[in-house]
Task: structure prediction
Amino acid sequence: MKNNKHDHPFDQVVESAIKKMEDGMTVFQKFTCSKCGQRLTMDVPNKFFVEGTCDKCGTITDIRKQGCNYMAMYSSDPTKATPAQIVAAAVDKKRH
Ligand SMILES: [Zn+2]
Result:
């Protein structure tokens, strides 16, 4: 496993991202391919996947094990979800 200073423990990142979502920001998960090191950004807003597919080499990265990060942006159309709904929807136990 490569150590990547850009990535942090999954649960910690999700917790931090949920706070941003509650502030009305839109977040996109970012992670690093465990094989080729490509920096990848998910295209699904406000969602954290436990596994991600590399656009470049097709490798599946175990994001829960490797860690991740996110980018947050102000949205003109912020989520109307309640905090409980945001938390319930934030983690997707699927591959993307
Ligand atoms: Zn890759």
